[in-house]
Amino acid sequence: MMQRHLCLTFLVLILCSTLLAGCGSNRYVLVTSDYGIHVASGKPRLDPKNDTYSFRDETGSEVVIPRADLKQMREIRD
Q1: Domain limits at 65?
Q2: pLDDT of 8 above 70
Q3: Alpha carbon of 50 to those of 28, 37, 65: distances in Å?
């Protein structure tokens, strides 16, 4: 009985950690008006003062795109 309880607890912990890991890994693909493609490793942030979107790409570099140049933005679902 104790072994079953321990196994069930272990499975619940694995399930919770998998779900939490999946929640933090949102990626977005952004297409600009000149058909440039960028992949953001998190939701891009809109800066209303400068009217730009900023995000970190997959290499960790900071990218800033003017809102007027953005054609499309979609979340990538794994």
Answers
A1: 2-76
A2: no
A3: 21, 21, 10
